[in-house]
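Q: What would this chain look like folded?
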Amino acid sequence: MSTAGTETDESARGSPLTPLKLVGLVCVFLALCLDVGAVMSPAWVTADDQYYLSLWESCWKPASTENWQCSSTLGSDWQVATLALLLGGGALVLTSFLVALVAVCIGTRRRFYAPVAFMLFAAVVLQACSLVLYPIKFIESINLRIYHEFNWGYGLAWGGTIFSFGGGILYCLNPKNYEEYY
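A: My prediction, written as C-alpha cells:
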C-alpha cells in the first residue's frame, strides 16, 4: 500500500530533475547574459575607427576633427523595430529562465517544461527576425564608403539566440524516452 502512495507523491511532484534540464537551465542563463550584453554593446557595426553604430546611438568622427559626433538611432523605424524585437525576445528569455528556476526550486517540473520551451522558441523567432532585419536595413539605408564590419555586439545577439534555441530543444526532450542520458 505504501508503494501506491509513493508513486502518487512522485507523480504529483513531477519528473526527476535530469542533467538535460539542468543544462537547459544553464543554456537559458547564458542566453540571457548574452542578450543583455548585446543590447548594452556599443559596437554592432564599426568602420575603421571612424564610425560605430549600436542599438542606441550612431557615432562618427569627421576626418578634420578628433571629436566624435553622436546621434540617437531611435529615430529610424527599422532600428526601433530591431530593438523592439530583440527586447521582446530578451523578455521571453528572462521569463522562461525565471519559470524554469522556480520549477527547479519548488519541484513541480514536468508541467513547466512545455511553457518554457514554447517561450524559448518564440524568443528565437523574435530575435532571429531582428538579427536578419538589422544587416539588411543597415546596408540598404546607411551608405558607408569605407570598410565596415558587424562587430561583437551583433555576435553576442546571435550567441544568445543560439543558446535560447538549444535550451528550447533540451526542454522539449522527454526524460522518459531518453533514459540513457541520465
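The longest strand covers residues 57-60.
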